[in-house]
Amino acid sequence: MSAPVFITAASISAELHQAMMEARGLALTAKNARALAVRAGSRTVGFRAITDFIEELASAIIQQSQAINNDAEHLSNQAVSAWRSDMANERFHWVRAQNSTHADSISGRILACEQRSGSLNQELQHGLRRLIDQLEESRKHIRTANLIATSSHVEASSAGDFRGQLEVIADNIRETAERIGGHLNRANALLSQNHRERKAAC
Amino acid sequence: MLATVLYEQDDHRWIMFGRDANKPDGIIDTNQYLIQSGNQAILLDPGGIELFAPMLSAVLKYVPAEQITHLFASHQDPDIISSLGLWDQALPKAELYSPWLWESFIRHFGMESIRFRAIPDEGMTIQVGHTQLQFIPAHYLHSSGNFHVWDAKAGILMSGDVGAAMEPTDAPLWVDNMERHAPKMKKFHQRWMPSNDAKLDWIRRVRQLNVKVMAPQHGRLFKQPQVGEFLDWFETLPVGIAIK
Ligand SMILES: [Fe+2]
Ligand SMILES: [Fe+2]
Asked: What is the pLDDT of residues B187-239, one digit of tens each?
C-alpha cells in the first residue's frame, strides 16, 4: 500500500524545498563566476556569457520549485479533506449496517460523502498528473545545467591563470545540478508510485 | 453502547449513552446525553472521535439524524468534542453551542458545515423543540470556559466534569452511597478543579435550583438525596491543591 496522498504531497514539497535551496546556491555560484570572469578579462568572454545563462537557469529553477511546492501543498490539503470524507463515510456505512430504528436517516449523508469523495479524488488525480508534468519540465532545466557545466569546463581551459578557479566553478555547477536532479527524481518516484496505485484503486 | 432513558414526559426525553464495553482500551469512559423535545434534539458533550460510530448508531435508535438540530460542548476537551469533524459530516445543518472562549480551539477538530454558536460568559437560554434549556456558567470547573445544562422541567442538571468518577464500565448507573462513592471522586476533583472560589460560587447557585438528577460526564449519576450530599461534600473539599 502506498502512503496516503497527503504524506506523499508533503514529502514532495520537502524535496522541492531542498531543490530550491540548491538552486539559490547555484545563483550565488553564477554571481561569483561572473565577478571572476570580469577580473580575468578578455580571455573569459565566453565564460561570462555562460554565467548569465546560469543565473537565468537558477532563477527559473527557483520559480518552478516554488510553483510545484505550492501545488503540492494545495494537493496535500485536498487529500486531507478526501481522507476525512472517506473516514466519515466508512463510519456511516458501519452505522447503517447496525440497523438502528432510524439508520436510514443517514443515507443522504452517505450519498453526499461519496459524491464529495469522488470529486475530491478526481481533483487529486488531476493534481498529481499536473505535478508529474511540472517535474518533467524541471528536469529539462537540469539537463541544460549539465550542458552548461561541460561548456564551462571547455571555456575554463583557455582562461590561463584563472583556469583552476573557473574549473572549480564548473564542477560546482555540475554537482549542484546533480543534487537538484536527485531531489527531483525522488519527488518523481514518490509521485508516480502514488499515482499508479491510486489509478489501480479507482 | 448502553442507552438509558433518564426522563420521559410526553415527547420530552433525556437519554444517557455510555458504559461502552467495546470502547478501545486506554480511553476514558464518558457519558453522553441526548435531550429530545418535539421534533428537535440536542446532543450534550457528544464525545471523542473513537466513540463517534457507536454513538451515532445508538442515537439513531431514538431519533432520525435530521432531528438532531443542536450540539453542545461544555468545554474544549477531546473527550467532550474531538468527534466534531465527523458530526460535521453527519449533521451539516446542526448548530454547536459552546463557550465563546474555545471557538478557535474547537475548530481544530474540524468544522466546515456546522455553525458555531458562542455562549457568552454569563450563560444563555435556548429552546429545543418546546423545551427551554439553560446553559449555566461553571467556569474553572475545571475548564476556564465551561457550562452545565439545566433543564428545569425535567429537573436534570448535566454537570460536565463536576461529580465525575473514574469507574469500570460495568459500574452501576446511580450513586447509592455517598460515603463509599466519595473516595472515587476525591483525587479527580482535587487535581482537576483549580479554584475553591469558583467551586463555592457554583454550589451556591446550584443549591437554588431544584435538582432532581445530577448527570456528570464520567461515572455514576446522582439522585436525591445524593445530589445534596454531593454538594455538601464538594463544599468542604479543598481543590486545586496538587502543588502542595
Ligand atoms: Fe474536561
Ligand atoms: Fe471529561
From this structure: 999 999 999 999 999 999 999 999 999 999 999 999 999 999 999 999 999 99
- Which ligand has an atom closest to residue B48 CA? 2
A144 band by pLDDT with thresholds 50, 70 and 90: confident
Q: Which domain holds residue B198?
A: 2-236
Residue B117 domain-assigned (yes or no): yes
Q: What's B17's domain CATH number?
A: 3.60.15.10
Beta bridge partners of B7: B14
Please state, in angstroms and rounded to a whole number, the distance separating the CA atoms of residues B76 and B147: 11
What is the structure's pLDDT at B171? 87
- Compare CB distances from B89 to A101, A105, A113 and report the shortest one's residue: A113
The three-class DSSP label of residue B105 is helix
Domains: count for chain A: 1
Contacts for B61 with CB less than 8 Å, ≥ 6 apart: A100, A101, A102, B3
Question: Taking CA atoms, what residue in B is nearest to A96?
Answer: B57
User: CA angle, corner B163, sides to B192 and B116, nearest 5?
Assistant: 75
Q: How far is the CA of B186 from the centre of ligand 1 (A)?
A: 16
Domain membership of residue B72 (yes or no) is yes
Which position has the grid cell 497527503?
A: A6
Q: What angle do CA B136, B142, B146 make, to 5 degrees?
A: 30
B244 in a structural domain: no
Over residues A15-41, the pLDDT tens digits come to 888 988 988 888 888 888 888 888 877
The residue segments making up the domain with residue A145 are 3-201
Closest CA to A16 of A67, A85, A56, A81: A67
| Residue B28 neighbours by CB distance under 10 Å | 13
Residue B242 falls inside a structural domain: no
CA distance B113 to chain A (A): 13
Total domain count, chain B: 1
Nearest partner of B146 among B132, B164, B159, B128, judged by Cα: B159
